[in-house]
Specification:
The chain is about 65% helix and about 10% strand. The chain has one domain. It has 4 helices and 2 strands, in the order ββαααα. The protein is elongated. The protein has about 180 residues and is mostly helical.
Length: about 180
């Protein structure tokens, strides 16, 4: 957080308490208020990108389950549903490491965009300084890659998934 005066709030049941909180800068450092603001701004953007990525992965997994059920119910849609699920799985595999079964699997499989975002959040937040030009550049490129995959997901949902829903309408639209 950026140094300054804040208010914290604690709630438990019907009880709510607030108290003032001050975050002070380390006087041994030459970090300016603008440097802290740049760090906090980039961390906020990275966190927002990670949240959007996680929401997309949850959405993909839900749609893949729904497509599998639809394919089991209607043999005529099974192929189209499987194709859609494959497109969704390809996007999911870029966003996260779908093959990871343990924490040591990071050495066996390529990192997903989520792993790289988490690493960047750690890199940018580790010191009380403005982000380096390199961290800023990598962050921008990574957030653009996430946005590109989310746009790709939106296109699949608007195109292929919508088509499956249209074809399944007589049965029941369940995907989306």
């Amino acid at each position: 957080m950026v140094p300054g005066a804040y208010q914290v709030e604690f709630s438990a049941g019907a009880t709510r308490q607030t108290a003032p909180l001050s975050i002070v800068r380390d006087k041994r450092l030459g970090t300016t208020a603008e440097d802290y603001a740049r760090q906090f701004g980039l961390l906020s953007e990275l966190s927002d990108s990670l949240s959007a990525l996680n929401l997309a992965v949850n959405r993909i997994r839900r749609m893949k389950r729904q497509l599998a059920v639809l394919g089991e119910r209607d043999a005529g849609l099974a192929g189209k549903a499987a194709d859609c699920a494959g497109m969704l799985a390809a996007i999911e595999a870029v966003l996260v490491d779908v093959n990871r079964q343990s924490s040591r699997d990071v050495l066996r499989n390529p990192a997903g965009l989520n792993d790289t975002l988490v690493d960047l959040i750690n890199t940018v937040s580790i010191s009380d300084t403005a982000p380096t030009a390199q961290a800023e550049a990598v962050s921008r490129a990574l957030m653009a890659a996430v946005a590109s995959q989310l746009a790709r997901l939106d296109a699949v949902v608007a195109g292929e998934v919508a088509e499956v829903n249209r074809l399944a309408a007589p049965v029941a639209s369940v995907v989306g």
